[in-house]
Amino acid sequence: MAIRDRRLKLNYTQEYVAFKLNISQNSYSKIELGQSHLTLIRFIQLCEALEIEQDEMLKVVMQKA
After folding, report:
1. pLDDT tens digits, residue range 8-50?
2. Which of 16, 26, 50, 51 has its CB surrounded by the most CB atoms within 10 Å?
3. C-alpha to C-alpha distance for 60 and 46, rounded to whole angstroms
């Protein structure tokens, strides 16, 4: 949910973030739904795409857990 919330805060579509990550919208959707595990590299890329520092994203994720 933290990833989705951040994306919506930026008014980005799933398609846009998927494009920035060079993956399909379907693959990105699975990340948001927690159906796909993130590698460290993909997590860093995702944070860059969502314009958030990695430590800040981790804080948000831990608060929602």
Report:
1. 999 999 999 999 999 999 999 999 999 999 999 999 999 999 9
2. 50
3. 14
